[in-house]
Amino acid sequence: MGRYGKRADLIVHEEEPFNAETGLAALASSLTATDAFYVRGHGAVPEIDPAAWRLHVHGVVERELDLSLTTLREAFRERTETATLQCAGNRRAGLIAIRDIPGEAPWGPGATGTATWTGVALADVLALAGPLREAAHVGFEGGDLSPEAEPAERFGGSIPLAKACRPEVLLAWAMNGEPLPPVHGAPLRAVVPGYIGARSVKWLERIEVRSTPWRGYFQHVVYRLLPEDGTPGPGAGMPLGLVALNADVLSPADGETVATGPVEVLGYAFAGGERHVARVDVSLDGGVSWSQAELLDDLGRWAWRHWRITVDLAPGEHEIVVRAWDSSAATQPEDEAALWNPKGYVNNGRPRVRVRAAAA
Amino acid sequence: MGRYGKRADLIVHEEEPFNAETGLAALASSLTATDAFYVRGHGAVPEIDPAAWRLHVHGVVERELDLSLTTLREAFRERTETATLQCAGNRRAGLIAIRDIPGEAPWGPGATGTATWTGVALADVLALAGPLREAAHVGFEGGDLSPEAEPAERFGGSIPLAKACRPEVLLAWAMNGEPLPPVHGAPLRAVVPGYIGARSVKWLERIEVRSTPWRGYFQHVVYRLLPEDGTPGPGAGMPLGLVALNADVLSPADGETVATGPVEVLGYAFAGGERHVARVDVSLDGGVSWSQAELLDDLGRWAWRHWRITVDLAPGEHEIVVRAWDSSAATQPEDEAALWNPKGYVNNGRPRVRVRAAAA
Predict the structure, then answer these.
(1) What is the C-alpha separation between B341 and B237, in angstroms, rounded?
(2) Degrees to nearest 5, angle at CA A162 with B276 and B298
(3) Residue of A nearest to B350 (CA)
(4) CA Rg, chain A, in Å?
(5) Which of A 139-178 lie inside 8 A of B, CB atoms?
(6) Contact yes or no for A329 and B345 at CB 8 A
(7) Minimal C-alpha gap between A271 and chain B (Å)
(8) Closest to A228 in 3D by CA, of B323, B74, B232, B336
């Protein structure tokens, strides 16, 4: 058992703050086990006394609220959603392989996972507070102080009010049917399905209804897509929010030697936003011809989709290329190199895995 | 003046049914003039007596409705939206250049346009009808009989109930502040912002609230994305709905000779669905390096975005490549060839324009 109750097979990118991704084996399950779920932290895990903890709701609202966990549980309807969380840095390793990105963790395909989340709808809490006419964004602030910002600041971010009022956005106290572990944000975290993981703020202590987007470091300076030659700075680049269509191969592993003949290729795809995965294609000839993979368990509109296909491999070297399609019939861009950006976000280029088939 | 009150500079692909696209000059305006707006028809323009016309609303509803135009105008709040319509076959010419697509019109970049639409919210009409618990889709049927289906059938299609209940979906009787012209669906048409044009059914006569998607030819057989080697048939392929992120260059024209030195490049981009265009990049070196174009008039979340950049061209041949990004930080796929499909839908590959710069 590793730190924070995690399995030993997580790939730890950083010990303090703790940052670790899910291994390929655990990613192959439809639902990701809590002890295998990735952790993206920006500061030390705060120690919070649940009895003393309050959620403060304020800003452009009719009525400020200070809610205890007991009140949240008793005053609102409990809801459960199955949702994929995905870090904006998922698959960054592919970009780093093109050109180094100093100071950023080389996340592979495991900065994502899917769990069932239980809590109350943010919409119900907002309805009690009563957003005023100028309300347009809902900000979240956690109890974790991050030294990454200078001066250090609490992690936070906002989502548009229209999204915040949708029933799938939760304030969650449970994950996969168990109490939320401290490393995942206990006693309460936001869960914003379809948005980058950074908006699912952990250790939630403050909700601010605002007329403008969050001005804190983690939305106004980072978690923004810069052009290739851009420099991070306040307001520079495009703010991230919705997750872009993405996919990766989980098996076989890149560089693996497999037996010639039928080989099962397995992976995941995630459409993000309010879209779903409509198709996944696999090519063995560099994208000249494609075969459709089978889409596996449908966990609903907020979850990734696993896919599988059996390909027949002759002896020798092969490259497996994958492209997912979303419900708008859009597919992934081909080339990772042209997606390189200074912070290494949103690598959603078509995954490529090189394998060698050898006689068994 | 051409047929149906259209300008002579429309590019007519078919006279009967009338199919014509907007020329490059008219596409360069933020709002597309009605007399330049593209027409995609599947049958003869029906002759409808507005006084006798009724909109029949039925299916899984509490109360069937038969509404006259007068009742629609008097009983519901009038709404206006600026929205881009885009045919799923827009830019098909690029796919046909790779491999022929017999029987399908070679639409260029002009099977799209943006207008202001005035009418009532479909949501308000549905609220009066009262969708029952099993309601999940809202179907539209026009008064136009299409011989393309065998046997001939009226044009139609459906959208999810959740979309139908959004305020931007209109039943429109006016376009750009004038009564809807017959060729655009008078007396009443659906306008479904963010969806393929085929769902904005013209000459609307019947709305059917359903538990399942539309089973008619124009949704169950065509307007579906097939794999490259697929064959159209009932239920084959992926149903289209949301418009995929797309863009094209309007000036200079492909093959044009321009003067060396600064050259203005102008085009449009459209994110479709509920997304917006976040960035547009232009490359002169085949995608190795990119410059950001300026985004022009913001007409709101349901409209395309024009963009402009001035590039400096030395004497000789140049290829201008463009990629748009949507608000999920997804960009367009590089290669049109890999997007080829048997009906020629959704060509959203990065546009490429070849120009020759010559001393003035």
Answers:
(1) 10
(2) 30
(3) A333
(4) 21
(5) none
(6) yes
(7) 10
(8) B323
Judged by DSSP in three states, A93 sits in: helix
Question: B360 pLDDT exceeds 80?
Answer: no
Q: Which residues of B touch A243 (CB under 8 A)?
A: 328
Does B279 reach chain A within 8 Å, measured CB to CB? yes
What are the counts of helices (DSSP H) followed by strands (DSSP E) for chain B? 6, 24
Do A208 and A139 touch, CB atoms closer than 8 A?
Answer: yes
| Intra-chain end-to-end CA distance of chain A, in Å | 35
pTM > 0.90: yes or no? yes
Residue type, A152: A
Task: Please give the DSSP secondary-structure letter assigned to residue B319.
Answer: E
Backbone angles phi, psi at B223, to 5 degrees: 55, 45
Strand order in the sheet with A204-210: A65-67, A55-59, A204-210, A137-146, A153-160
Distance (Å, whole) CA B290 – CA B166: 37
Gap between the Cα atoms of B350 and B129, Å rounded: 44
Q: Answer yes or no: are the C-beta atoms of B230 and B342 closer than 8 Å.
A: yes
What's the helix, strand, coil split of chain B in %, to 5? 15, 40, 50
The residue assigned the tokens 């098996």 is A251
Where does the pLDDT of residue B335 fall: very low under 50, low under 70, confident under 90, or very high at 90 and above?
confident
| pLDDT tens track for B188-208 | 999 999 999 999 999 999 999
Q: Check if B227 contacts A (Cβ < 8 Å).
A: yes
Q: How far is CA B255 from the centre of its chain?
A: 26
Q: Which helix (H) or strand (E) holds B180?
A: none
Cα–Cα distance for residue pair B124/B207, rounded to 1 Å:
13
| Distances in whole angstroms, Cα of residue A353 to Cα of each of A55, A115, B137, B163 | 46, 27, 40, 38
C-alpha to C-alpha distance for B132 and B245, rounded to whole angstroms: 34
Q: Which two tokens stand for residue A249?
A: 């191969």
Do the strands A137-146 and A204-210 form a parallel or antiparallel pair, or are they unpaired? antiparallel
Distance CA A321, CA A338 (A): 17
Q: What is the CA radius of gyration of chain B?
A: 21
Separation between Cα atoms, residue B297 and residue B295, nearest integer Å = 7
ipTM of the complex: 0.93
Rounded Cα gap, residues A92 and A248, in angstroms: 12
Out of B241, B275, B292, the one facing A327 most closely (by C-beta) is B241
Give residue A115's identity as a one-letter amino acid code. A
- The secondary element (H helix, E strand) that includes residue A332 is none
What is the Cα–Cα distance from A353 to A357, expressed in whole angstroms?
Answer: 13
- Over residues A333-349, the pLDDT tens digits come to 998 999 999 999 999 99
Q: Nearest 5°: phi and psi at A137?
A: -140, 155
